[in-house]
Write a structure and sequence with these properties.
The complex is a heterodimer of chains A (192) and B (149). By secondary structure, chain A is of the alpha+beta class. Chain A contains five helices and five strands. A five-stranded antiparallel beta sheet of chain A has the order 1-2-3-5-4, covered by helices on one side. In chain A, β4 (155-161) and β5 (164-172) form a beta hairpin. Chain B starts with 11 loop residues before the first helix and ends with a helix. Residues 1-9 and 11-24 of chain B have low confidence and may be disordered. The chains are: A alpha+beta (192), B alpha/beta (149). Chains A and B meet through α1, α2, α3, α4 and α5 of A and α4, α5, α6 and β5 of B.
């Protein structure tokens, strides 16, 4: 087992850095190229959630990112320091929040993908500060972020506690393959 | 951080051109990196439609810029917006939230917000969240501008 630990101040700009580091380490560990976009997106969601929580409740405390390369898996653990409880089932929450529960299940795209807008725009505005209070906004964003992660990643574990939330996502390594393991593909962050 | 190597996570413009790399002074490199970090936004009118061309990465850091752009456009009376996402390299749920917010604002004026996107990796997050049912997603700006329903 090999680990990389990154600790970063809860600034939004560092989420991009986190994506770079994780993608670089994941590639070197042997995660297949086809999974790297998924890894980037999931890490971005997890780090964004942590950063939002810290900025409100624990701005002086860094967010911790631990990358764990095992024999057959690559795991990313994002730990924040804001104690809170879970919000229930993220998928259900998203459907309800987005007003999509009558339209169909998550991921089930209509054949042409082009329907008239539902009432989503009226029910939430995740991009604006003007709808919900700070905490309500955080909860809504967290629900959506979790829904995306759970939709993307097969192996996700979320541990809520009074000390903070630890989100662990695990991907298989492509062991039998043609993945470039000699590090040539990891130039920008080869020193990490 | 250096713009060298292959198969990196850096944007292609930073790694693909030897001439480009030779031209890097520290100042130009800094500027390039800042450009890469930043979201690029440009707008133009096509008839009664306003096309917003978005490039780069839409995440928790850059999404506020896109949100401000959409708010400004609606405030200025542009209620039929086409967001061209073909040059977007990364999009997460923060960006989705901004687009949903934009949709909400134009709909308050009986307007429309259409997306142009053919990139599978970007479309994937719309599918995961079910938002393909919410946004009209087109294959080209021409198609989006011509769409009426």
């Amino acid at each position: 087992v090999s680990t990389v630990t990154v600790s970063f101040t809860a600034f939004p700009e560092h989420v991009r850095t986190a994506r770079f580091i994780v993608a670089s380490v994941a590639r070197r560990a042997g995660v297949s190229e086809g999974l790297l976009d998924e890894v980037r997106l999931a890490v971005s969601e997890a780090c964004s959630m942590a950063v939002r929580q810290h900025r409100v409740f624990a701005p002086a405390v860094p967010v911790e990112l631990t990358l764990i390369e095992g024999d057959a898996t690559f795991a990313v653990r994002v730990s924040d320091a804001v104690g809170r409880e879970g919000h229930g089932d993220a998928t259900e929450d998203l459907l309800e929040l987005a007003g999509l529960s009558e339209v169909g299940a998550l991921g089930a795209e209509s054949p042409n993908g082009q329907r008239h807008p539902t009432d989503l725009g009226r029910s939430i505005d995740l991009g604006g500060p003007d709808d919900e209070g700070v905490v309500g906004g955080l909860r809504a964003r967290e629900r959506i972020g979790l829904a995306v992660i759970e939709g993307l990643v097969d192996d996700v574990q979320v541990d809520y506690s009074g000390d903070g939330v630890v989100l662990t996502m695990t991907w298989p390594l492509a062991l039998d393959d043609d993945v470039d393991l000699d590090g040539a593909g990891s130039a920008p962050l080869g020193g990490v | 951080m250096r713009p060298s190597g292959v198969a990196t996570d850096w944007p292609p413009e930073l790694v693909s051109s030897p001439a480009h790399m030779r031209a890097f002074s520290s100042a130009s490199m800094k500027r390039q990196l800042e450009d890469a970090v930043d979201l690029s936004l440009s707008t133009r009118s096509e008839g009664d439609r306003t096309v917003v061309v978005v490039g780069g990465e839409i995440d928790v850091y850059t999404a506020p810029k896109l949100r401000e752009q959409l708010i400004d456009l609606v405030a200025a009376g542009n209620y039929h917006i086409v967001v061209d996402m073909e040059k977007v390299e990364f999009l997460d749920s923060t960006g989705l939230g901004v687009l949903v917010g934009g949709l909400k604002r134009v709909r308050a004026h009986d307007g429309s917000l259409r997306l142009v996107c053919t990139q599978e990796r970007i479309l994937k997050i719309f599918r995961i969240t079910g938002l393909t049912k919410v946004f009209p997603i087109h294959n080209s700006v021409d198609e989006a501008v011509a769409a009426t329903d």
